Amino acid sequence: MPILAAETSLPNGGLTTLDLVVIGLYLAGMLCMGFVIARRQKSTDDFFIGGRNLPAWAVGVSILASLLSTITYLGMPGEMFRTGIGFLTRQLSIPVVLVVVWFLWIPFFMKLRLTSAYEYLEVRFNYAVRATAAVICMLLIFGWMAVVVLTASRAMGEIANLQLNQHFGGTAAVVDTQIATSDLDLHVIIAAVGMFSVLYTTLGGIRAVVWTDVIQFFILIAGAFVAMGVVASMTDSGLSDWFQYSQEYKHEQVEWFSWDIGNRSTVFSIAIGMCFWIICTHGSNQVALQRYFAVKDVQAARRSYLVSAVASFGLSLVLAAVGMSIMYFIAQHHLPAEAGLTSPELTTVRTAQDNMFPQFIRYYIPSGLRGMVVAALFAAAMSTIDSGSNSVSTILTVDFFRRLYPEGRTIASELKLARTVTATMGIIVVVCTIGLYHASKGTDIISLCQKGFNMFLGPLGAIFVLAMFSRRATAATVLPAVIVGELVGICSSYSNELFGMEFSTHMVVPASWAATIVSSLLLSTLLRTLANEEQQQWMWRPVVRGAGDHPVGQDG
Hints:
Membrane topology: Multi-pass membrane protein
Structural class: mainly alpha
CATH architecture: Up-down Bundle
Protein name: Sodium/glucose cotransporter
Strand content: under 5%
Distance between the termini: 63 Å
Helix content: over 70%
Keywords: Cell membrane, Ion transport, Membrane, Sodium, Sodium transport, Transmembrane, Transmembrane helix, Transport
CATH superfamily: Sodium/glucose cotransporter
Number of helices: 21
InterPro entries: Na/Glc_symporter_sf (IPR038377), Na/solute_symporter (IPR001734), Sodium:Solute_Symporter_SSF (IPR051163)
GO molecular function: symporter activity
Radius of gyration: 23 Å
C-alpha cells in the first residue's frame, strides 16, 4: 500500500463557530423535546415507565443507546488499536445471552408488573435484601455515569483544543509538546455535560429518555460514518484496505485461553466477560429492566430485546471499522508529534488508544461535520446519563419513599419528588466524575469501567439468580454472600493497587458473581436454610408457569 508524504504540521484544530452552531441546535432540540413530553405527564407511572405503552422498537434502541454510551463509542475503536478484531470475540456470547434473556429473564420480569426491579426481592426474601440490592444498583449507576461523563468530557476537551495532560493518558513525549489544561477547564466541561443531560430528563421522564435515545442513537451512527468517510476520501481507501492493514499490524496477541489471571484479554475471557455482563445487566440492573417495564407485554419486551441485540451487533462492526480506518489513516500520514498520534507504536501505551478517535475528530473532520460528530459524543453521553438519572429516581421513590412513607404518597408528591431527585442526580454525578477524574490517571476506558462500576454488577445479578432458582436461598444466606461477592469485585478491580498484581478486567463480573453464588450455597448447606412456601411461590417456575400475571407492586 502506498505511504503518503509525512505531514510536518497539523490542520487547525478545535471547534469553529459553525461547529458550535450545530452542537447548539442539537442541544436545543433535546431540551425542547423534554418540555413537550413533560406536558403529557400526569403520574409517576408516566414518569417512570411511560404508562407501559411505549413502542417496542424505540425501547430496544433506547436499551442499546443507554448501555453503550461513550464507553463503547470511544473505547471500542481504541481497543481495535490494541487487540485488533480479537476484541470482536465478545460476540461469541450472543447465543448464550439470547437464550437466557429471551427465555428466562423477559417472561419472568414481565409477569411481575414491576416499576422497580427490587420490589420483587422483598416478596422473595425481605425488605433488607430489597434495600441492599437497590443501594448496590445506585452505586453501580453513579459509577457508570461518572465513567461516561469523564470519557465524554475528556474527548470534548481534546476536540475543543484544550491541551490535555497525563490525566488523560498522554505519554511523556506528547506531554512535553503540550500545554496542560487546568483542572478548572475540565471541571467546567464535566459540569456542562452532566447537568444538561439531567435537565431534559427531569422534565420528560422515561418517555423523554426513550425518544431522545432514539434520536441520539442515529446521530451517533452518523458520526461514525462521517469519520470513516473522511478517512476514505483523504486516503482513497476503503474497508478492504483498512482490514488488510489491521491484519498486518502487530496488535497484542489474543490467546484462546490462559490460566494467567493477569492476562487482560483472551478469547475466553472476553466472551465470558461479555456474557456475564449482558446477563447480569438484563437480569438485575434497573436501567435495562425499566425499559422492558415500559412496554405492554412479554412479546413486546422480546421485540425490544431483539432490536437491541441486532443494533448492538451492527454498531460493534461499525465502531470496529472506525478503529481500523483511523489506524490506516495514521499509518498513511505519519502524523507529527503534537497530534499525540506520532505512529501506531503509540497504541502500546495503555491510554493513548482512547485519544485516537478524539484527536482525529479534532484535526481532520471538516468544520460543521466536526460539530455533528461532537454532537454524537454528547448523544452517547446523554443517553446514558438520562437513563441512569431516571432509574435512580425510580429506585429512591419506589424502594424507599413509597415503601417507608406510604402515608405521604400522593400522585403530586411522588411526581415532584421524582423530578427533584432526578435534578439532584446532576450534582451528584458531577461530583463523582470529578473524583473519578483525579483517581484514574493512566487508566484506559475499558479498565476504567471495572474500577468505576462493574465491580457491583456481579453480586447484583447473583441476588436475582439465587432468588429465582435456589429454594435454599434466604435473606440469612444472601446478605453475607453479597458482602463476599462485593469484596471479590473490589479486590479484583483494584488488584494492582491492593496486591501489586494484575487481574483480567473482563473477569471481574464473572468472579464476583460466582463468589456470591458459591458463598450463598455454602451458607445454605451449613445453616440448613429453606425458603418458606410463600417465598417459593415467587421463584421462576411458579411465576412463569402460573396463569396470568403475578403483580408485585402497584403502578403509580
